[in-house]
Amino acid sequence: MPAATPSAAPAATGAATPSDLVLVTGMSGGGKSIAMHALEDAGFFCVDNLPPELLPEFLRLERARGSRRVAIAMDVRSRGALPEMMDQLKALRASGLPLRSIFLDADNDTLLRRFSETRRPHPLRAGDDETDTHRALQDAIQLERELLTPLRMESTVIDSSQLRPAQLRAWVRDLVMVSGHSLTLVFESFAFKHGVPSDADFVFDVRVLPNPYYDRELRPLTGRDAPVAEYLERQPEVRLMLSQIGAFIAQWLPNFSADQRSYLTVGIGCTGGQHRSVYLVETLVRQFAYHGQVLKRHRELDAR
Questions:
Q1: How many CA atoms lie within 13 A of 203 on its CB side?
Q2: Which H/E stretch holds residue 99?
Q3: Does the chain have fewer CB atoms within 10 Å around its N or its C terminus?
Q4: Taking 60 as the threshold, does the pLDDT of residue 11 lie above it?
């Protein structure tokens, strides 16, 4: 992300502002460690589990040290200070700080599987005297969701349930490389058979469109390939769907920008996430290139 001009800190917190600040938060097991490693590789100075009450002093030290990009991981381990964290984030944003807050999430089944595989304790587990460890873990995950809901609502959410580590690293790098001064439009293709991404603000179901999968020559190709694109461009239903989705996004994009949102994620789903949804995402990204800050993701294709 390009360095931004530091703004004056709010008097209430006394916090100074480094050139770029990324807050990494989210569910335990959601991928925060992978995200922090990606940011460290991208040149960020990374701090894990900084107590929220130390944030103002830390930012003052950063200003004295000189401008550099900083990433801070905060999560439910600081649950006693979560209300204070929310107040600080709102105050810092109000001051004009170029702040990005990324929330790493995953569905409950994925989180349960990851904890089972790593055998690491959940930070909200009651203790080792629990007889039903599975139920204790489920309860801890549910409690964590409740505690982190306000922080999730203030953040850009990445659903890591279906993502490989390399995908997650790439998506985090993409997020922090765009400017923080205007809304970033994200188009994401996905397969309904693998679940709807929970980070999508809008979801469009394009399974009603003609499917290139049933053409043997097109089946091994993707929506990025010219033969598939040519096939879909000939279908009136595809042209109509593209026109209507594009018109809807164009109509409401200024309103979302005026609402001072950082990201708007549009999910386009088909059966396998290979042909129709990919083609529509590729086309919509070109259509909205004028917006300046447009990202594309292909959840299923990028996992190959």
A1: 13
A2: strand 99-105
A3: C
A4: no
Are the CB atoms for 84 and 34 separated by under 8 Å? Answer: no
Domain ranges for the chain, please list them.
Answer: 20-177, 184-303
Instruction: Measure the CA–CA gap between 176 and 295, rounded to whole angstroms.
Output: 12
Q: Which pair of structure tokens corresponds to residue 103?
A: 């929330």
Which tokens in the block code for residue 214?
């049933």
Phi then psi for residue 22, to 5 deg, are -120, 125
Summarised one tens digit per residue, pLDDT across range 100-146 is 889 999 999 999 999 888 888 888 876 555 556 777 888 999 999 99
The dihedrals phi and psi of 157, each to the nearest 5 degrees, come to -95, 135
* Mean pLDDT, the chain, whole residue set: 85
Please give the Cα distance from 232 to 57 (Å, whole number).
Answer: 56
As a whole number of angstroms, the distance between CA 132 and CA 122 comes to: 14
pTM of the model: 0.74
DSSP-derived pairing of the beta strands 69-73 and 294-298: unpaired
* Contact yes or no for 52/81 (Cβ under 8 A): yes
Please check whether residue 270 is in contact with residue 277, taking contact to mean a CB–CB distance below 8 angstroms: yes
